## 1
Amino acid sequence: MIHATNIIGNKWAPIIIYVLEERKLRFGQLVVFVEGISRKVLTEQLKELEQKKVVKRESFAEVPPRVEYSLTEWGKELLPILSQLCTWGAGISIDSDDEKNITIQKRV
Amino acid sequence: MIHATNIIGNKWAPIIIYVLEERKLRFGQLVVFVEGISRKVLTEQLKELEQKKVVKRESFAEVPPRVEYSLTEWGKELLPILSQLCTWGAGISIDSDDEKNITIQKRV
DNA sequence: AAAAATGGTAACCTCGATGTAACTAATGGG
DNA sequence: CCCATTAGTTACATCGAGGTTACCATTTTT
């Protein structure tokens, strides 16, 4: 678990993975799709995810340069889990009494 | 997903949830089981998880005081997901060529 | 000559998460 | 009277993730 949370336990990684899904995206597209991320942080995150074998990077020596990012097979295995996490997170927590704080008074 | 990662996306929350599993634990036991956590941070995390309805807190007005923590039903639903995440994280990433960086030279 | 497009990098700053150490309240035991 | 126990709290210090701004290299377009 420590390993898994090291990978997805930061602000942007889950979003990047979710956005990449089954397609290839260029750096510039990722900046747009991952709303709010700065270019610097996106660079860092992609580097980290690449090093951890979750993301694959393909660089084309053209002008202007082109770089495509996609998920590795291992990275794609994360998608259904993230999906579950998403469903769970959206679950309304029922406000039934037995879920609320209970303070039991007990004199001894 | 944002919601879910807000909950489990910090250093200790997943570990606390994993340790609590199906049992009730006292504050002092948690300090021991969650190795390396400080009492202050444990307090904060438990408060946060309680507020987010993942953890249930029962306080007994005894001396010395006794407080028991356990997962709510909603929190327990997280266990299988964390388990999957753990399995995934343990997966060896195959070093096959198609998972490595590819630099395609292409003159235009 | 200058701007536009692409994929970055470097220097710097901010802020929240985390850690440390000392302190509290209440009571029983020696 | 002093210590131990339990579950914290308070006042700091630190550390690293993330953000901001400016800049680079290369070629085509205006």
## 2
Amino acid sequence: MPELPEAERARALIADRGLGRVIAAVEDGDSYVCRPHAPGELAAALVGRRLTSANRIGKTLWLETDRGGPDLGLHLGMAGRIVIDEEPHERWDRFALTFDDGGRLALRDKRRLGRAVLEPDLSRLGPDAALATRAEFRAGVGRGAGPIKARIMDQAVIAGVGNLLADEILWQARIDPRRPANQLSGPELDALRRAVRAAVRHALREGGAHTGALNPHRERDGHCPRCGAPLSRARIAGRTTYWCPAEQR
DNA sequence: AGCATTGTTTCACA
DNA sequence: TTGTGAAACAATGC
């Protein structure tokens, strides 16, 4: 599930129900999810601290702590979500903070590809996909000979677009996902930027990256919900990609 | 049984 | 050197 909209939802949840609470204990025993930290390292750094802010760029979250404490970086990976004050889940809670009021914030993640780290490295993230300026977007997205889909999914170029959102955006903008990025015109890049913002807004409102108009048709033998043409399917940028060969040029 | 999967990182290669 | 694509990572669902 997690792309930018899900991450923003998690951030808002933490901002609403996590801030101001004091960490009494930390479940950091999953050394894969907490890598490169050893078990106990996050606990030692965080116990006694109060959560003071919840922030996000793209799909990466980080929480600030009081009195000069470290930032706690969280990433939802392929299947993670944040739950607060819910019954603990034995298998799928890969990391958790217990608060001194008895409550609990957990990273619940079936696939175990989520992350919890101290002082996350944000230096390799581009601007948030929904906030990139027109100049940033043109300069970053319009560069390189690789397919445009790979470009908008590159978190160092713009942060937050994953596979489902990328297909939706390109379909809305009527651009062929295989087009070399540096072959798109300025107006096309501007249209793509508008499609990114619209798709993010829509997904935020509707509850996730899977709520786009194209999504229900992203399957073998799917058809374009606009024109009815059979959708094409191929592996682009390492991910399964669906597009309308009649409309996307 | 085998394959696919909404994410990221690393590595081989051009 | 820079960029690109494939594979690895873990675990689950079809």
## 3
Amino acid sequence: MALSSLATLCSSPPVSAVRDSPAVSNLNGLSPVADDAAAPSAFLRSGGGGGDLKEIKQLHCRVAKKGPTHNNELIAKCAEVGTPESLDYALKVFEGWKEDECVAGSLFVCNSLIRACSFAGLGERAILVFVRMLEMGVMPDKYTFPFLLSACTKVSWFREGVQVHGAIVKMGFAGDMFVANTLIHFHFECGDVVDGRRLFDKMPERNVVSWTSLICGYSRRDCPKEAVSLFFDMVEAGAVPNSVTMVCVIAACAKLQDLKLGERVHSYIGNLDIEPNGHMVSALVDMYMKCGAFVTAKRIFDCCVERNLVLYNTIMSHYVKRGMAREALAVLDEMLEQGPQPDRVTMLSAISASAALNELFFGKACHGYILRNGLQEKDDNINNAMIDMYMKCGESGLACTIFNSMSNKTVVSWNSLLAGYVKIGDVRSTREIFDEMPERDLVSWNIMIGGLVQESLFEEAIEFFRMMQREGIKADKVTIVSVASACGNLGSLGLAKWIYHYTEENVIERDMLLDTAFVDMFGRCGDPKMAVQIFEKMEKRDVSSWTAIICAMATEGNGKQALELFKEMLTQGVEPDDVTFVGLLTACSHSGLVEQGRRLFQSMEEVYGISPKVVHYGCVVDLLGRAGLLEEALDFIKSMPIEPNDIIWGSLLSSCRTHKNVEIAAYAANRSPELTSDRTGIPVVLSNIYASEGKWSEVAKVRLKMKERGMHKVPGSSSTEVNGVVHQFSSGDESHPEMSRIAQMLDEINCKLRDAGHVPDLRNVLLDVDDHEKKFLLSRHSEKLAIAYTLISTGQKMPVRVVKNLRTCSDCHTYAKLVSKVYDREISIRDNNRFHFFKEGFCSCGDFW
DNA sequence: GTAGGGTTAG
């Protein structure tokens, strides 16, 4: 942590506003001992201008009786000082001016005053001066208008600007190049691209500023392509770009995120012999960062000795965006030691960095600094960023205090709060805020949908997506990434196809992230062909894209293909991450590739420097257990350097079930920490193992234990989609409206299967009842209900797709195989672990799962 | 005298 920064941030002299701050009481308690002497002087500087105003007043007293000429002197002095106070003072003097006091030189003074107002960003005062000078009969000249118009532009006073434009034309100054240049700028800032361009085209002669205004205008109006192409036109036309032109065109390249183009434009700086300045360095660093050329950007930053505020802010914001929050704070450290005084943009990055690092202490220090310097006044962004920071640091109370104190809550303020509650996982508050919002935009919906997905409320996420459509909000790629994830988790191929077509029909921008989400979605929905098709068409693929396709292969049970893809990924120079290994190990496990799995696990740390997490150990336990190597799996667990969790023991247990090993099962169950927690997986599996071996007294013991702890078994449930409607069945469920037809069908299937030689495996019934009852219960497993319903509700040869919440039992597996043959239907069952594709009596898993 | 870089939420 940047301690010196903290010390400095906390030791600045407080102003009255700090006392009213919600955070301040805490901050005062936390602040290191104030040591003003150690703080950089810039930090202690007060507002400035107070002394100058005193000087102005003294001057006023001295010249008061000397006549009108001296008023000029006084106003010129005010303009020179240029603070709001001094300009107000000038206006007051100006107000008292009488017409006959105007003398030669007054026009010059008025122009200077308007110029000063424009510089200070005080458009209103500039207009006042202009109106007053007209009243007094001081006629403006061509020097009056550029600053007057630019003052209007700066404060977005477009109505007044249009009036000024009228005055310009009436008074005959429209032909002046300087005035025309300002008019171009004004029109572009109004959003009036066409008129701006027309003005440029009509100019009889142009200078570098004319070109630059046009290039800048296009770039800022989100037409960076036109901006860059105009730059080349300009060079072609023989006009010589200067450093301002370069800044504008570099900014346009940054917007395009086109590194090649950026480098080409960069080379002009040397070729045209343009002296590099601070503005240009900042623009270049920003451009290279936005184009992903981090090393080049960093080199330019490091080489620059005279680092100005914007350059620091640029590098800081990019560090934060790239997840390098510590580095961002190190930059702040350097600024506080030697550099320019941090401003509101600096603090926005500092707050973001605090939020990313969960550094509440530092965040509060930033809050204090912001209040002491009044940076939060008139700046909603700062307040919004602080809401975000406090929410991320777990201080929802402080976040709400800031939120409630804001007089001008924008949709962004609401969204920041909303996103904060999503991050804590507080679905109820999120929903309440969402309902309470006076206005919702695309981001609000995206936060809500993303939040529901995060909380595994996939159906609700889809429902919100539909609601969003009904309200006429057009989804973007961020929405679709969340929705695709929801579809993938629901495993509904119909929904997946629908959302995919929605994206194509609505021409929603595709990027690597979205394509990767689609690959993942189709992988999970049992359409690996589609996943591969999308993957192959991708222009750029990162580690997540490769991982998604590897996982798709793993889910399908295509271990060999998964390993092939991994090889290809390495050839293309993409480094695997820990998630990639989850996919690879799962793939090996599902395909019985024990040796390959062992080797991959070994290589994780040795070759790729990735320390295995619990989930990877779980995969290996699964790999060994499924292959029947239960002793080795147990030894492996015993040798783990980290504490095995419920999932590890659960995985071993379920292998014990498959391979009927009661001893190891009992051992594992007793080691599992879950028996003392309130989740149910392990006791259920254990009781199932005892049940399948007919050890009913043991079953009763485990069940009693569960009951005492208030646990209950999660009921098996399967869903299937028929004509776009999802039908849900739970085990033994008779509530479906078409239950009598389903029962009839179940009987028919049972007869046909019996004729085909199928004997129900009654060990799958985990209750102590007679065989007749067992047969009945077995025939009502949820996947069987779903299969039967789909068979009677869909046409011949239509595939049957079932999604199950638990692992499918061995009887249902055999059942599905035979149904696929007897009824000549392709059947897929996605259980909580993988896909099974049944066709002509065989399953894609090769009975290995 | 006109034109320029960095900005919060998904």
